[in-house]
Amino acid sequence: RKWVGGEVLRALAYDVPIPGYKTKNTISLRLWEAKAGSEDFNLFQFNEGRHESSLHLHSKAQQ
């Protein structure tokens, strides 16, 4: 198998503390959010009225 292509996204990690039941211990749950960079926004398509296609990578990163 060979991996071909892909998209580069920014990943932001959020650590959420989860308290234990009847104890002082906690564990961390790491959640991730994918974001497209601002350079992935196509201003030319946006100005031409093609708003959906200009935000293609942003909406794909949200899925």
UniProtKB/TrEMBL annotation:
InterPro entries: Glyco_trans_35. One of its GO terms (cellular component) is cytoplasm. Its EC number is 2.4.1.1. Its cofactor is pyridoxal 5'-phosphate. GO terms for molecular function: glycogen phosphorylase activity; pyridoxal phosphate binding. It catalyses: [(1->4)-alpha-D-glucosyl](n) + phosphate = [(1->4)-alpha-D-glucosyl](n-1) + alpha-D-glucose 1-phosphate. GO terms for biological process: glycogen catabolic process. Pfam families: Phosphorylase. The keyword Glycosyltransferase applies. The keyword Signal does not apply. Keywords: Carbohydrate metabolism, Glycosyltransferase, Pyridoxal phosphate, Transferase. Allosteric enzyme that catalyzes the rate-limiting step in glycogen catabolism, the phosphorolytic cleavage of glycogen to produce glucose-1-phosphate, and plays a central role in maintaining cellular and organismal glucose homeostasis. Belongs to the glycogen phosphorylase family. This is Alpha-1,4 glucan phosphorylase. It comes from Nymphaea colorata (pocket water lily).
